[in-house]
Amino acid sequence: MSETKRAVILLSGGLDSSTCLAIAREQGFERYAMSFRYGQKHELELAAAQRVADHIGVAEHRIVDIDLRAFGGSALTDDRFEVPKERSESEMESGIPITYVPARNTIFLSYALAWAEVLGAWDIFIGVNHIDWSGYPDCRPEFIDAFEKVANLATKASVQGEKKLTIHRPLIEMTKKEIIGKGLSLGVDYGMTTSCYDPATDGSACGSCDACLLRLKGFEENGMKDPAPYSEVISG
Predict the structure, then answer these.
(1) Which of 176, 214, 225, 230 could be a cystine partner for 236, CB 3.0 to 4.6 Å?
(2) Would 190 be classed as within a structural domain?
(3) Which domain holds residue 114?
(4) Which parts of the chain fold into alpha helices (H)?
(5) What is the pLDDT of residues 65-112, one digit of tens each?
């Protein structure tokens, strides 16, 4: 009888993490989804994460409460800053935007690592992407590689030589077009997801923040309309 493969999947309810969850299912993992209520202004994403977890299927979905508003420094957690809108691709590529949340992926991966240790899981999935992205330093392959090394130095089981933990980043070198195509082939319902940094109170996306613009570009390149709701009619 084959051993059950367990994996912790970081699930925000967005396009990338939802695709990542479907990939983990395709690869035969028993899936444990982890989301965070971290003081983000777009907390509506957690409802999307729950929808996606229910749709794709998980053994358990944990929503962890932490408060990164204690530090601020990001338009996603700090009322002093507004989410930038209508930026061009060249502007997105010009530097680290104010929507970057300091140390967010480091913190999220640390929580995922703790749960993985308890579960006896040797795999963590994260939907970071280095092609169509907004310039976040904690989405780079160098960071993920470094964290994986730290994880295997810091955990009881790896130090005792039982196994090595792997951090999977299947989307890291994919464009948004490719990510969407992969997800569609795996049955992801992107109408359930949200990527917007500044959604309306009813959950509809703004269509003009960096995350929305990159997402809309991906659907347009696939020759289809984004099925997620937007505050204004978006062509595609």
Answers:
(1) 225
(2) yes
(3) 6-195
(4) 15-26, 45-56, 89-92, 104-119, 141-154, 156-159, 176-185, 210-221
(5) 999 999 999 999 999 999 999 998 888 878 899 999 999 999 999 999
